[in-house]
Known about the structure:
By secondary structure, this protein is mainly alpha-helical. It has one domain (9-118). The protein has 6 helices and 2 strands. The chain has helices at residues 25-35, 39-48, 53-63, 70-80, 82-98, 112-119, and strands spanning 9-14, 17-22.
Amino acid sequence: MSQGQPNTEVKIILDGKSYVMRSTFEALSRIERELGSGVMSLAKKIADGALTLEELATIIGHAIESDLSPDAIRAAILGSGVTHATQAVTGMFVRIFRGFHTEGAHIEAVSREELNKLASHFPDI
């Protein structure tokens, strides 16, 4: 990671295996295209507790580097726990908007309250 670039990597465990979600520009663009929603709208849905399982799986699928199929990702989310997957995605979105720069650090869980604070800065989403 280059100096000054935010670290937006977040660890997620799926079926007992550790993955790193990376919110690269390319991954975020694929997520927006597939879901038909911008990242700000998705952040608002996360803050409101309105993210669907399919949206959760799509975000994770595009953010991790893996050969897991979409069906395998869906099954892994259910097997590992929807709460864990939601916390990881929330952590990724918090980092996207806050632009954290902590070399090598990972967020494993972030509260909904923390993302709500973040989403309050974007009232029009």
